[in-house]
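Hi U.,

Before I forget, here's the chain from the pilot set. I'm dumping it here mostly so it's searchable later in email.
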Amino acid sequence: MYFSSNREGGLGDNDIWKTTRLDDTWQNWSAPQNLGATINSDAWDAYFSLDAKGEYAYMTSSKNSLGGSDIVKIKLAVENKPQPVVLIKGRVLNKSTNAPIQASIRYEDLSTGKNEGIAISDPVAGKYQIALPYGKNYGFNASADGFMPVSENIDLSKVSEYKEMIRDLYLLPIEKGQVVRINNVFFEFAKAELKLESFPELNRLVELMQKNPNMKIELGGHTDNVGSEESNLKLSSDRTLSIQTYLVSKGIVADRIKAKGYGKSSPVVDNDTEEHRALNRRVEFTILEI
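Structure:
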């Protein structure tokens, strides 16, 4: 966090200072550091802001100004730059019509399920933009009344340089026959055991079924073409049963959920690359009744 203050240790009037959050509590911060004479002056310096890349800063200063104060642009030294982030931007669209939607975009830490922030997409063009710091595995999704969210995942657990990514988010109308891919569900390798990172996504499915008490769904498990047909059928079936068990444990009546494994019989793309095989390894749910 960068802030302006006339605290002791400055160069004169208000200076720009920097402090870093030390944990997730918002209570523990590093000792503030003055950004020094390359940025601060003995006059009034304030309104410090950064571009998303963290390369340039903009601020106002009354030192040698043309009036009360001027806006200046500064190229930041390495020691004054913030930690790098990934800037994600795109549009929120109706999957059926491709029309833009005003929606809430939430992003969360998949390891804890903790909400890390929220943004609102533009109601005319559906545009949104979020900046995610490195250090966590994130899930993010858009939500709006009458639609089902489809989540995305981005693993930023390893720190790297600033990046920009385009990710359009699609919302599906809640209607009979709708097929929804459950993206942020993770299993132990070649097993049906759910990982903790799956629970935020499954909790959203629980919430959807609670809000729509007449909804009945079929969970469909799918694999790639690696392994025998028998083993893939069993794995896909066991994984949907694991999800069904979790939903029932959260209060959803069992007869509202069918679980079926399809093995490798219904690929969405050819199994010709690892990336394509990953797309075929999926769990979907189909709305049977609404």
